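ERR on first pass: missing label on line 2. Operator R.T. fixed the label and resubmitted. Corrected input:
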Amino acid sequence: MAEQMAEPRTVVDDAHELISSRRVEGTPVYNRKDERLGAIHSVMIEKKSGKVAYAVLSFGGFLGMKEHVHPVPWEMLTYDVDMDAYLVDLTRDQLKNAPTLGLDEADRPRDRQYDEEVSGYYGTMPWWGL
Amino acid sequence: MAEQMAEPRTVVDDAHELISSRRVEGTPVYNRKDERLGAIHSVMIEKKSGKVAYAVLSFGGFLGMKEHVHPVPWEMLTYDVDMDAYLVDLTRDQLKNAPTLGLDEADRPRDRQYDEEVSGYYGTMPWWGL
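pass 2 clean. output:
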């Protein structure tokens, strides 16, 4: 019994099913060719259900480049434990042509018409379903 | 047609169904008696489904008080547009006696035994269901 009590509430981490929003933000994003595409700026959460609708990926911000973001459906992202990064199956060109917002617009949700463009571009289900 | 084009992608906000994780973090939390209980430190997200498992509420941090956090099931929180705050139906005493973690432990998930204590305390369903 004493031994059982000796290891309560183990802190698991990388392999855990949960991740803090503060750890998601800033996590780098790579594609399958090991090209760094950017980093997670934030996630957009459905208020009522608490479900992440999409991730907001940030790009640029170096050497005078204007920083911008791409909303990307959450289901497109796979967390890679070894790389401590998200992997996404997109080329740089695919992302370059994807729906884009300015960094100053990143933390405000858009309307459903815009969000439908996003899911349409990636061929995923809109976050509100069908 | 030109008029239709004139108002694309309206930025809606308070009344919107979505909210950025960066806006959730730092949002104050009040109870039904208008007592300020703390603020949202972060949310814990289920990696695969993208569903928020629980919010992490921060407390203290003033006048030498040690800052700590309480994991609180997301469904306990209601966003109040007028107050720009989350409302939760808990007294200060209920929260004082609730499962608590140090601020340095806030961004790491715990094991299911601990998370079951949390949902047990609040009488909610564990985030992984039954």
